[in-house]
Every structure is written in C-alpha cells, then in structure tokens.
Known about the structure:
Blueprint: H1 2-61, H2 68-71, H3 77-104, H4 110-136
Helix pairs in contact: 3-4
Amino acid sequence: KNVKLGEEMDKEMKTQEILGKRKKILEGHLESLEKNKKSFLTASANLKSENEKLVNYMRDNVNKKFDVNEAIVPNDDLSKQILELSALNNSLDDTFYYLGRALQKKTIKLDDYLSSIKDLATEQFLTKALLNKINAL
C-alpha cells in the first residue's frame, strides 16, 4: 500500500511539474497577447484618426475643382530637374532594351549597336551621377 501511495505521489509531482511548465508557457503567451493587444489598439486609434482626417479633407474638398496637371508639376527648379533626369534615365533604359531586341532580330548591325550603346551608356552614366548628386543635397 505504501509503495502504491509513493508511486501515486511521484506521478502527482510529475503532473504538477508539467502543469507548472505549461503555466509558465501560457503566461508567456498571455503576456505576448497583451502586448499585441496594446499595439493593435494603438494602431487602430491611429487609423481612426487618419481616417477622420481623410473624411474631413474629402468633405471640405468635394466640390473643389482639381487639376491633375498642376498637382504633378514640381514646385521648385531642383524637383523639376530631378523629374526630367529621372525621365531621361528611364528613357535610356527603354532605349537599351529596344536596341537589344533589334540586335537579336538582326535589324541592326553589331557595329551600330555597340556605337549607340556606348554613346547612350555615357549619357546615362552622367545622368545618374547628376541625379545622385542632386539627391545628396
């Protein structure tokens, strides 16, 4: 009888140990959930605030005329230069692509291709260097 009682006590102690470990794990998860809840509540409050600002802006500006062309025009010379240089850089990328396709289709000679690529690469290098310099300001 004492042996059986001892075995049951050991079994109960192991069960208590397992329950203690699981309790710590659950408490950790609960703590993590509480942190997430606070974070989500803060984000929700920020979203509501930003949404309210947007609704107010829309309400105030619903009948105002809006010219898209005026909205995308740069305000200063530096912004205008960045826009123009970015457009030039992108057009040079497109030109490289189409010159490569023309070479693959054999509609342009290799010498003409290389000459064009050399000139355009120099122009693109200078364009990117100027863009980097302006962006560093």
